[in-house]
Amino acid sequence: MSVGQNIPHDSSRGHVTGGSVFIDDRPLMTGEVQVLPIGVPAAAGTLKSIDFSEALKAPGVLAAFTAQDLYHNSWGTIVPEQPILVADKIGYYDEPAVLLVGTDMESLLRAKKFVRFEVEKGPAIFTIDEAIAKQSFIYKANAFKVGDADAALAKAPHRLKGAFECGGQEHFYLESNACIAYPLEDGQMEIHASSQHPTETQHVVAEALGLSLHEVVCVVKRMGGGFGGKESQAAPFAAMAALVAQKMKRPARLCLSKDDDMMMTGKRHPFKNYYEVGFDGDGKILALKAHLYADGGAYADLSSSILDRAMFHVDGAYYLSDAFIEGSVVRTNLYSNTAFRGFGGPQGTMTIESIIEDIALYLKKDSLHIRELNCYQKDVRNVTHYGQNLGHNPLPDLFTELKKSSDYVTRRQEIDAFNARSKTHVKGLSMTATKFGIAFTARFLNQGNASVNVHKDGTVQVSTGATEMGQGVNTKIQQVVAHAFGIPAQAVKVMATSTEKNHNTSPTAASSGSDINCAAAMKAALGIQKRLAWLFQNILAGTPMNDIAECPTLNEAQLRFDEFHFEDKMLTHLPSGKSLSWEDIVKQAYFNRMSLGEYAHFKTEGLGFDKKTSQGTPFKYFTNGVAVSEVQVDLLTGEYKILRSDILMDLGRRINPGIDRGQVTGAFVQGMGWVTSEKLFHNKDGKLLSHSPTTYKIPNVQDTPRVFNVDFIENHENRENVHRSKAVGEPPFLLGISVWTALKDAANAKSKGLISTLKSPATPEDMLLELARHE
Ligand code: MTE
Ligand code: HPA
Ligand code: MOS
Q: Which helix H or strand E contains 517, and what residues bound it?
């Protein structure tokens, strides 16, 4: 019984012993060259020329390549508009423009300073408001409408109007973008990349080089973290390495430094969301009108999908009877913002969580009361603003249970007393929720394929399109396949992802990597299970070996599959109680010339969303959770501590409870970093200044909650997904928002009625400024 067990992550030993192989750990090949992309020193305007003649004279430098060397110089997941290397128009500061190639990285770094750019600078846009003023847009979404927001707003006893602002976020994966391109015979190319999307990497490389898709293979063993940052943006770097490999007929390695990775690649989208909310005297929300503005940066990338997901999540956990939600992506002269854990969901949900804190202050009520009042219910008030029924909805129970287990009511009283007493500190407490829609909102991406190969000794290799980035997808696939065959997890290995084995795959993203690829692997395993059962059924019936017919896959009545059971390394015929060992049945299948391999394709059923009417069922189901955080702020310095956070999540029946606990804890801390300390700074020219750990502050262990309780409810109702589990990767990221609302609650405790203007992230400086407004 492998499913439900805490099998160790398949890389856990390797990661702590150094045995895990990342891209730059791959041994150097004879003749292999290093590639250093160099960015333009301007955010907007025209690149007139690049002079690398001096750099070419430096020792160790072999060649330089530019846009002119590419067969095709544009890429883009949704809109193919982004150059791989700047040709003329500049999109953002440090945008890659020239590839310096050499024998070793030290030589390239020394030679870099000899490269000269001639640039004609143009006017640049760096903020959302500037972009709105100049009508610089990438995408405008169709509005989401439910009820009559204008009428409901006009009738509402109370109204608040404002703008919620949140900043971007650097992915800060430990392995920067990295790739090695190996030129093969006949111009074919083999790419090893740190990519969440091997298929897109294959496609971008092929197009850039003028090859057909069948001439390029992309292999991904693992990533040292992706977090969305390698969903689309791994591809152009692979194309750069492949260009060098093609031109020089030598293997080419491109491994970005942390600083270059931070400066050249996109981040989480900053949002500025204008809204007007109407509510009654008890705090019940009667109407919401909002316009979400996302900063897409210089190019479209995944921005339109990210904005869509933000609009889908602007309700948070709260029912909206009358709403009108608009959205736009603006174009600025910053790196092209991209997928990051939550994919717009956090930016949408945080808006309503922030609004609720404002309503609480305005009505002088506890924010949890407002949340409970507005929370989606089970049988009524359970349809979203885009028309999806929530189905089994655990949100009310989650709020009730966490309120009890975290001792919310008593602690609220204690905090109020503390705040009345203390002259030096103020405390805040707040509970927020996540209701994260599971599925790619682009319907066609909800498909995957897998192949399962049983070897003669009974061990199994599985290949799917899923990529392992630390989230444990390999371990979950290993478990469901081992479970299907009734063999120990150690007897199953999940192999490196390759476009040669699994083609036309979707990115490992949208938290559905495990869902889709486990489902495909189970479907493939089932094909083999059926053949083995058929063989055993014939053996039991005394059919002579050579006369066993093909397994009647279409005639379920002939194969009495449900009479057979795979467990404890045995295949058992339940009615007779007779069994054969796993190894035996596998051997017999081989000698009887039966296939022990199977390929299966899986697609998620039941999805349908009409973009024109903005109504339908974009999601298969929702993953829900709640968190309550308590903070203490120093009134003199603005510095704060997170005293305690409690999390309660519904992950259905977990396939691997330990891995899921890791995902919840890690996502919460990453979310908390986004809303507290992770702030991006640029100079007046648009150059990113916070491009290393010395200037960009992710949480460390001392920053995490002093008391940190992570718990789960048992929910056996999720019939929508494999073994009734629920996707976990992104949903708990949104719970980090509770730290920010707790900080806002602390500031509100000092407010004399003035509505907060706190933005995210709320650094200690920001807290001090906010507190000063209330003096
Ligand atoms: N966990 C680790 N350790 N490293 C990562 O890069 N990425 C997150 C999440 N958890 C990530 C992670 C993101 S953005 C997604 S979409 C999911 O994992 C992807 O994996 P899954 O779909 O298999 O859950
Ligand atoms: N989530 C994450 N990645 C995606 C999505 C999504 O909904 N759509 C396309 N890429
Ligand atoms: Mo995750 S942002 O969907 O890669």
A: helix 513-541
Model confidence over 107-145: pLDDT tens digits?
A: 999 999 999 999 999 999 999 999 999 999 999 999 999
Tell how far the Cα of 226 is from the centroid of ligand 1, in angstroms.
Answer: 7
490 CA distance to ligand 1 centroid (A)? Answer: 23
Show the DSSP H helices in 683-760 as ranges: 737-749
Contacts of residues 184-189 at CB distance under 8 Å and 24 or more positions apart, as own/partner, are 186/215, 187/211, 187/215, 187/246, 188/215, 188/216, 188/217, 189/215, 189/216, 189/217, 189/242, 189/245, 189/246
- The pTM of this model reads 0.98
Question: Is 730 marked active-site?
Answer: yes
| φ, ψ for residue 20, nearest 5 deg | -65, 135
Question: Distance between CA atoms of 252 and 240, rounded to whole angstroms?
Answer: 9
Which residues have a Cβ under 8 Å from the Cβ of 665 and sit 6 or more positions away? Answer: 708, 710
Ligand 2 pocket by C-beta < 6 Å: which residues? Answer: 231, 302, 305, 309, 339, 343, 440-442, 445, 509-510
State the closest ligand 3 atom to the C-alpha of 230, by its place in the atom list counted from 1.
Answer: 4
pLDDT digits (tens, 9 = 90+) for 645-673: 999 999 999 999 999 999 999 999 999 99
- Tens-digit pLDDT profile for residues 301-322: 999 999 999 999 999 999 999 9
pLDDT in tens, 498-514: 999 999 999 999 999 99
